[in-house]
Amino acid sequence: MMRGMIRRILAALAFIAVPAAAQDAAPSLPATPPATVVVAFDRETIRPLIVEGLANKETGRAVEATDPVRIASISKLIMALTALRLADEGKVDLDRDVSDYLGWQLRSPYHPQAPVTLTHLMSHRAGLSDAAGYSIPLGESLEAKLSDPAAWREVGAPGQATFEYANLGSPIVATVLEAVSGERYDRLVERLVFKPLGVKACFTWVGCDPDMRARAVTLYRHTGEIAADGPATVPPACAIPVAEGTPCDLDAYVPGTNASIFSPQGGVRISLMDLAKIGQALFDLQHGDADGFLAPGTAQLAMWTLAKGKTQDETFFCTYGLHLQLIEQPGRTCSDDKLFADGIPRMGHSGEAYGLQSGLWVDPKSDTGFVYFITESPPPAGGEDTGGFTARETALMARALKLTEKP
To answer: How far, in Å, are 43, 71, 162, 338 from residue 310 at the CA level?
Structure first.
C-alpha cells in the first residue's frame, strides 16, 4: 500500500515539474467524430455501413443505426408518398385547385386567377417564398400566413412558375391531406406510410414512445452548441410550436386547419434502418409493380412528373418533381453530380438543417440505395435549406461505396 502511495505522489510531482509550455505541446486525445450513420439497402437487405460518433455528448452515449434522428427535408418525400397513397384511395386529385379542399381560396397576389395544385406545391412551382416564414404555431392561422404578400414571389403563374425551393408549401400540402381525409397529419402518415412499411417514426416526437425519445440523436452545430432535440426540447417538453397564450394541447386541434404544427417540411424523427425501408418502397416507382406500395398508374405519374421536372437551377435542384429529386442525370451540367460521382442517376431527397446533412438515394435500375446523416456541419454560404452537397458528404459516400465494392 505504501509503495503504491509513493508511486502516485511521484507521478503527481513529475506532472507538476513539467513546464507549462511542454504541457501545452503534449498530444491530445483524438476528437470524437460527429454522429454519422450510413445504411445501404437493396430489395431484400438493409445493413449499416458506417456508425460512429456520439448521439449525445453530455451523456457520452454512442450513436446507433437504430437511433431516431430528425431527417430534415427528406420528410417532404414521405409527405409525397402519403399524398400519392391518398390519390390511390381516390380521396385527392393532385391537379385540382387546393382551394376546393381547404375551404378558403389560395391564390398568389400576382396571379389571382391561377389555381394552385398539390403538383405545383410538391414541385416547388407555385411561386411561394419562405420570406414570411413557414412555421405557423398552434393557435395561428395558415390562411392568414398565405395572405401575406411576402409569402409569394413574382416568378410566373403557379404551374408555369420557375422552380423556387420553398418550405412553406409543405404546411399547405399537409393541411390539404388532413382536409380530404379527416385525419390528423401525423396519424395519416402513420396509417398510409409508416405502418404498411413496418416503420417506427413520428413528427416532432408526437407519437414516438418513451424508448424512442430516450434514444434521440441530439443535433449539434459545428460550433458545438445544441441545435435541436436536446433534453429540453424532447417530450415531456412541448414538442409542437404554439402561439403565445395557446395551450400545448393537440386534443383540441381540428384536422385540415394548420398541419404546420407537425413540421411536415422537415420534422420526421426516424432511424436510418427504418428510413431504408422507405427507400425500398421507391424501387416500385420505376417498375410499377401491381402489388407495390403504390398503384402502377400512380407510380407512373410520379416518375413522369419527375422526368419532366427539369429546372433552370444548374447548382443543385436540377431535376425535381413531387418532392423527388433526380441527381447525376446524363446530359446535364449541374453541381448535383458530386455526391457519388459515378455517373449513375439516383432519385430521392436531401436534407439539411440544425447542423445535420442527410440523404436518401436509390438507383432504381439496380435496386440499391443509401441513406445517411452526418452532424455538426457548418451551414452553406446561402444558409440552411439552400441545398448543395458538401465535401464531407462526398467523402462519406466515397467510404460507403468502397465498403459495398464486391471483391
So the answer is: 28, 25, 10, 18
**399-404-405 Cα angle (round to 5):** 100
CA angle 400, 405, 407 (to 5 degrees): 145
C-beta of residue 219 within 8 angstroms of C-beta of residue 229: yes
Please report, for the chain, the start and end positions of each structural domain, with discontinuous segments joined by +: 36-403
C-alpha cell at 135: 412555421
Q: Exposed, middle or buried by CB within 10 Å (0-12, 13-18, 19+), for 28? A: exposed
Q: What is the pTM of this model?
A: 0.90
The three cell numbers locating residue 344: 449513375
Other CB atoms within a 10 A radius of the CB of residue 131 amount to 14
Q: Mapping DSSP to helix (H, G, I), strand (E, B) and coil, where does residue 61 land?
A: strand
Query: DSSP string covering 191-238, please?
Result: IIIITTTT--EEETTBT--HHHHHTPPPEE-TTSSEEE--TTTSTTS-
What is the rounded CA–CA span in Å between residue 152 and residue 164?
10
By the 8 A CB rule, do 378 and 46 touch?
Answer: no
Q: Are strands 324-327 and 319-321 parallel, antiparallel or unpaired?
A: antiparallel
Candidates 3.30.450.30, 3.40.710.10, 2.40.420.20, 3.40.50.300; CATH matching 36-403: 3.40.710.10
Cβ neighbourhood burial of 135 (10 Å; 0-12, 13-18, 19+): middle
E strand or H helix that includes residue 175: helix 169-181
Q: Could you tell me which of 102, 125, 132, 72 has the C-alpha nearest to residue 264? A: 72
* SS3 at position 128: strand
Q: Please report the sign of the dihedral spanned by the C-alpha atoms of residue 110, residue 115, residue 187, residue 38.
A: negative
Tens place of pLDDT per residue across the chain (407 aa): 333 433 333 333 333 333 333 333 334 444 788 999 999 999 999 999 999 999 999 999 999 999 999 999 999 999 999 999 999 999 999 999 999 999 999 999 999 999 999 999 999 999 999 999 999 999 999 999 999 999 999 999 999 999 999 999 999 999 999 999 999 999 999 999 999 999 999 999 999 999 999 999 999 999 999 999 998 889 999 999 999 999 999 998 999 999 999 999 999 999 999 999 999 999 988 766 656 899 999 999 999 899 888 887 767 888 999 999 999 988 777 878 889 989 899 999 999 999 999 999 999 889 999 999 999 998 776 555 455 789 999 999 999 999 998 77
